Amino acid sequence: MRTIAFIFARGGSKGVPGKNIKMLDGKPLIAHSIAVARSCASIETVIVSTDDAAIAAAAREHGAEVPFIRPAELAADSSPEWLAWRHAIEWVQKERGAFDLFVSLPPTSPFRNRQDVESCIQTLVEDPAADIVITVKNADRSPYFNMVALDPEGYAGLVIKPTASITRRQDAPVVYDITTVAYAAKPSFILKANGIFEGRIKTVKVPPERALDIDTPYDFMLAEAIAGIRASQTGNA
After folding, report:
1. Which of 21, 97, 139, 141 counts the most CB atoms within 10 A of its CB?
2. What's the pLDDT tens digit per position in 173-225?
3. What pLDDT does 170 receive?
4. Is the Cβ–Cβ distance between 149 and 219 less than 8 Å?
5. Dmax (CA) of the chain
6. Residue 189: which residues within 8 A CB-CB, separation 6 or more?
7. Phi, psi (deg, nearest 5) at residue 50
8. pLDDT of res. 14
9. 168 falls in which pLDDT band (50, 70, 90)?
10. Position 237 pLDDT exceeds 60
11. pTM above 0.70, yes or no
12. For residues 217 and 201, what is the distance between their CA atoms, to the nearest angstrom?
């Protein structure tokens, strides 16, 4: 079974300029995703899709392939990443033949581990009816208990009104936050669908300490703090 990992890393980050090659724990952010992907025995190769020459150079230096440059129209702020997924799949199918499983490992999630990725792949393999596997973590907030939306008059109400009174978050229906730790999907699903929620979705739960998604300068500061603590615990500080 051919499984190919992709890392989608455009160069135009606004929240944290140069984010994907910003140094974290001694190496560019994207290198953390490349290292985990290369450690997975079930992954054939690691391909980075980018529009940026500096990202491409860093990716190659750390062991990924960059066999094409992502078209500019697929790398704008408003470009859906789903279309970049399609572009990468179509390139591989045309140039290297069909493959069985698509894995996306966003560079903004540097604390995932090999088991998180392999669990996504295995979950998809074990359920022939599934189209895609996403990673989730326990939600900090619940739309049934402590998440609100405003009505046209500006008054707040629960996002989802429960059928009975809920006085403790623990009594609300269990909900999860989607993380960017990993995605595993059938290429055929991505090519025919317009988004994740058009398919049959399975989940793999990851602990919050591996689920950080770097989107803002604060997130990056938090990542640096976590990396520093981990280094001190392993004697590498």
Report:
1. 21
2. 899 999 999 999 999 999 999 999 999 999 999 999 999 999 999 999 999 99
3. 78
4. no
5. 57
6. 131, 132, 199
7. -150, 160
8. 78
9. confident
10. no
11. yes
12. 31
The HSE-up count of residue 41 (CA atoms within 13 Å, CB side) is: 3
Closest CA to 25 of 182, 233, 179: 233
Residues written for the chain: 237
Determine the pLDDT at residue 235: 66
Structure tokens, 7: 């890392």
Q: What is the DSSP string of the chain?
A: --EEEEEE--S--SSSTTGGGSEETTEEHHHHHHHHHHH-TT--EEEEEBS-HHHHHHHHHTT-B--SBPPGGGSSTT--HHHHHHHHHHHHHHHH---SEEEE--TT-TT--HHHHHHHHHHHHH-TT--EEEEEEE-SS-TTTT-EEE-TTS-EEESS--SS---SGGGSPP-EEEEEEEEEE-HHHHHH-SSGGGS-EEEEE--GGG-----SHHHHHHHHHHHHHHHHHTT--
What amino acid is encoded at 91 in this protein? W
pLDDT at 236: 58
From the list 9, 4, 34, the residue with the least C-alpha distance to 19 is 9
Q: How far is CA 156 from CA 161, 164, 166, in A?
A: 12, 18, 17
8 Å CB contact between 24 and 49: no
For residues 189 and 124, the answer to whether their CB atoms sit within 8 Å is no
Which pLDDT value is given to residue 190? 98
Token pair of 59 as six digits: 């990716």
